[in-house]
Design a protein that fits this description.
about 140 residues, alpha+beta, 2 helices, about 25% helix, about 40% strand, signal
């Protein structure tokens, strides 16, 4: 009887290890070591007197702030990991207007940023546009 119980315990342990390994492999596939290039571009046509200010941070890091003149950009690389938030939030300020948005969110952007993993934002007077090829832009939201 002890032998049967021991074999049963070993089989349970082995199957648990296999399940954990399969889960980790699946998570690695979803949140793998792929790098995503995130770029925020000042698309204003005339803001020479008032720059577009951007500040980006996540739970793990603070990228700091920048004042962007026309056509300037702020960019970084995101490397999604299982143990991190995989989320970068940015706050944009132009004159007295302020807007926060999710510049990168792994569960949303792993497919949306396309096979080249380009996640670009162009901020203009009338809203925030997203593109994964920097040719075709789609308005995501207003100020």
């Amino acid at each position: 009887m002890k032998l049967v119980a021991s074999v049963y315990l070993i089989l349970c342990l082995a199957s648990s290890i296999i399940i954990v390994m399969a889960t980790i492999q699946r998570v690695g596939y979803v949140f793998g070591s792929d790098e995503y290039y995130v770029r925020v571009i000042n698309g204003f046509t005339d803001n020479s007197s008032v720059p577009l200010v951007i500040w980006c941070s996540s739970e793990e890091m603070d990228l700091g702030g920048r004042a962007l003149q026309e056509h300037d950009e702020f960019s970084w690389v995101m490397r999604p990991r299982f143990w991190s938030s995989n989320h970068m939030k940015c706050t944009m300020k132009w004159d007295s207007t302020r807007k926060s948005f999710d510049a990168f969110k792994a569960e949303r952007d792993s497919q949306r940023c396309g096979p080249n993993r380009i996640c670009s934002w162009r901020v203009t007077q009338d809203g925030f546009y997203f593109s994964n090829d920097e040719v075709n832009w789609r308005k995501d939201f207003l100020w």
